[in-house]
Amino acid sequence: MNHEIREELFPLSKCLDFDNVEDVKTALVNTMIRVVGVDPQIASPREWYVTLAYLMRGHLSERGMHTARDQYGKDLKRVYYLSMEYLPGRRLMKHLLDMRIEPQMRAALACFKQDLDEICEQEKDPALGNGGLGRLAACFLDSMATQGYPGYGYGIRYEFGMFSQTIENGQQVEHAENWLQEGNPWEVVRHEITYPVRFGGRVVHFNDELGTESARWIETTDVIAEAYDIMETGYGDGIAVTLRLWSARSTQDFDLRYFNEGNYIDAVKEKTVSETLSKVLYPMDTTLMGQELRLKQEYFFVSASLQDIFRRFRKTHPGSLRLLPEKIVIQLNDTHPALAIPEMMRLLLDEHKLSWDEAWCITRNTFAYTNHTLLPEALETWPISMMQALLPRHMEIIYKINHLFLQEVRRTFPGDGDKLKRMSLIDDERQRVRMANLAVVGSSRVNGVAELHSRLLRERVFPEFDVFYPNKFVNVTNGVTQRRWLLQSNPPLAELICEAIGDAWITDLNRLRDLESMAEDASFSKRFMEIKDQAKKRNAAMIAQRCGVAAIPGSLFDTHIKRIHEYKRQLLNILQVVARYNRLRANPSSDLLPRTVIFAGKSAPGYFMAKKIIRLINDVAEIVNHDPITRDSLKVAFVPNYNISTAEILIPGADLSEQISTAGTEASGTGNMKFALNGALTIGTLDGANIEIREEVGEENIFIFGLTAAEVAARKAQGYNPWDYYNADPELRQVLDMVRDGFFCCEEPDRYRPLVENLLQGGDAFMLLADFRSYMETQENVDTLYRDQKLWAKKAILNVARMGKFSSDRSIHTYAQDIWDVTQMTPPPHCK
Ligand code: 26W
């Protein structure tokens, strides 16, 4: 293909003038008639949405071509972000804001009596991820595009993303989420970009013409990966970053043998089996007990992505694979794509005939790996037998990588058999491949996602590797994009900030510092608090509609939203709510500060304890919300189906952000950053990025409680006994007894016995009891401060002003400098 820039033949700069309302109207009508095929006179809001999406997509595509021409022209180093998950959120408003044409579009639509917000609501929120890791990937694509880093995302186009959640009888019920049912106007299918992905078969070894040993992987069963592209363009003068998602297709449409025998169903069966590969996202964020389909998904997307990366590389660098580490870098978003390491070795060895040493040098220098979790059960391992059957050649390569690696280790640590065992890529006892060890050995850099997490990674998870590879482990603290989490999700606050300090913060979040001087300005504070109040009203309306709970007007909105997991301690929060309930009932005339306590989040479908916690929250809500003594001072709401769109309403409308994981368990957290950016104060432990948030905002502007990570470890080493706390604290005891004995579920008194037994007899793995008292006291401090609205406003404003560090733009700059060694492109010319 010729990538010379031939602007005179194919000029890319004839754009729509969005400032001309008549032109915009004409473009809308034309798109609706010619592309969507609908008469504007009778178009539904959904058809308007599709029309706008197609119109915008044309502009994104143009931006994409500019970017591609520029990248090829300058032969820039590219970043490939490999992630099994993306949570990009709805697209339409994002692109209007990025192009700064939202008011113009609103005005044009008004001429047709259409409301832009209603139109935006038509869009399905693509839920191709579980939680933090997937949303981080989306924030990173936005930052790469905005900051001009030549990036590409690769992932899977799941037909069914994260399940949608309803609450029935207080319990989570999962429903299939067919987000593609009505089509996806943002994607472009690339029928011509397809690759075979191979599974199974066997490996034969032979000597080639030159007498060198070669391997051939034969008799495989193949699946086709087909590319779907979604364009991510950044804010203002950003570049385009392509998110390429792979969909699985069968290699043959029908098995003609069956067909000729008249067995139609069997003839298509094989086809549907191979298409199940990209059918569904695994809704688990920790343990995956060796599901074969998941391993196949991982390899499917890795193999297709690497073939695509190689194809693009070879277009511009034919025959010079040694240049690979100079021209590309591949970032592994956790170990889920770690098979890319043996896959690249396989390509270099078997297809491109490089020597082992050359291939290994290239591979190691091309990959970098981000770890996102310290929980041992979330560290991926795969049964050797399964890998052997599905990927026999990769298994050979992994064995050889391991053999050579352990040889080196033996030289460095002679006679230390235990160390060797721990560092091995193979767990001999359990007969499993350790993906994290593979990722560490095969990458040039390994990073954690917050200071504490990166330190604990080195000290607790990979201590031997840290000694063995002195400069491999680094930290890149997570960040969030202020474009979505302030500009888009909180327009009134964004506008107030722009009025006060200008709009430079949109692409340089450190500029928010200029707000510090306004923290005590009476008129600024007043408007700031009015905006919070409006956001709470909007939040309350959503909550009322979605779960029938009436938030208490003027109360403190206390918000705990994230995946439901024992380590995140939603249970600690609800125990605290029960204690508060008891205090109110014991003393109805007490003037405890009114609170609306909001929870949202999904549990993995098979996670027994997490599902019990959801049910307990709902059962507590049922009693508390209807008790005449408490209903005006305490409300509990569990908002169903937490996703990006819901977060966009819940976060701006929160006063208090609950970040209360057991210290040493939450890698970073990113919700914590979004809340503070929207002027909520944090109540949290010294865990993950909370520590750095405290450093930035100042300890007087955050509510920290509980044991530190070091104290947690020390307490465990001493022998932690939850009964000590139960026996010593009557209020805690009362709460636990009530929950255990069925106070909140008279019809089934034993319902929550397992939860309480898990704390008392079960050893309380996440130390809720140890932190309970300190949490209660800190919540009292929250109440006290909230009564002083002026002081609260000051602290909230200072939180916003000091969030500069937590922009994903800063994270991306750090990756670019310390890990990727890539430079920013100057944005190509384009309209607007
Ligand atoms: C094997 C299945 C599986 C799937 C996802 C295991 C583990 C995961 C992720 C590691 C879960 C995740 O989303 N981790 C979160 O990543 C965020 C972004 O770095 C962090 O802010 C969170 O603290 C971390 O829990």
State the helix count: 33
CATH class of the largest domain: Alpha Beta
How far is the first residue's CA from the last residue's CA? Answer: 30 Å
Find the CATH topology of the largest domain. Rossmann fold
In percent terms, what proportion of residues is strand? 5-15%
User: Mean pLDDT score, rounded?
Assistant: 95
Number of domains: 3
Q: Write out the distinct hetero groups bound to the structure.
A: ligand 26W
The SS-based structural class is alpha/beta
CATH superfamily of the largest domain: Glycogen Phosphorylase B
- Which stretches of 5+ consecutive residues score pLDDT under 50? none
Radius of gyration: 28 Å
How many strands, what sense, and barrel or not for the largest sheet?
9 strands, mixed
How many beta-strand runs? 22
Overall description:
It comes from Phaeovibrio sulfidiphilus. Keywords: Carbohydrate metabolism, Glycogen metabolism, Glycosyltransferase, Phosphoprotein, Pyridoxal phosphate, Transferase. One of its GO terms (biological process) is glycogen catabolic process. GO terms for molecular function: glycogen phosphorylase activity; pyridoxal phosphate binding. Belongs to the glycogen phosphorylase family. By secondary structure, the protein is an alpha/beta fold. The chain has 3 domains: 13-74 and 90-124, no CATH class; 75-89 and 125-161 and 171-249 and 262-477 and 816-825, Glycogen Phosphorylase B (Rossmann fold); 491-803, Rossmann fold (3-Layer(aba) Sandwich), CATH 3.40.50. It is 47% helix and 15% strand. It contains 33 helices and 22 strands. The protein has a 9-stranded mixed sheet with strand order 5-8-9-2-1-10-11-15-16. A hairpin with a 4-residue loop joins strand 13 and strand 14. Helix 1 (21-36) crosses helix 2. The longest helix is centred in the first third of the chain and has 30 residues, at 45-74. Bound molecules: ligand 26W. Ligand 26W binds next to helix 6.
